[in-house]
Amino acid sequence: MIYKIYKLSCKCCNKFYIGQTGVNLFERLYQHKRRAHNGSKTRLHTLMRNCGINNFKIKTLWKLDIDDKVIVDDFEQMIIKLEKPELNIAVRRVSEIGNKRYLQEYREKMRRDGTHRCDICNLNCIARIHLIEHLKTTKHLNKENELLNYYSRL
Predict the structure, then answer these.
(1) Do the beta carbons of residue 36 and residue 53 sit within 8 Å?
(2) Among 14, 25, 42, 78, fewest CB within 10 Å belongs to which?
(3) SS3 for 42?
(4) Domains along the chain?
């Protein structure tokens, strides 16, 4: 099965939510809109009502073609820990299975991706060379190392 780690962002206030799904992203966005419309009291759905349900955009951060849901859950939590979204409730303790491998793959994806974006630091770069230079900065490496240290203590 192909799972997607996604980012659901408000166009008005720039607050965002990180989630995962095995369905089409537009179907997942519709599910969130429906829950917000029906009065769900989560931070995300409350904000969707306050800012306007149609002021949210969804994008894929990562695709995982894997059958092990534990690894998908772990990777989602790793991205939540790195991104620190205001709308997610809490970061669960996760296992160490596959996290270093997926973190390395995530970093390589950012290096070769034509979008020139570091999702770990929430940074857009003008050119690929700027992104590559950013990946070497102390700020980025500290966030990455913080995550690896966290998992090594589990």
Answers:
(1) yes
(2) 14
(3) coil
(4) 2-153 (3.40.1440.10)
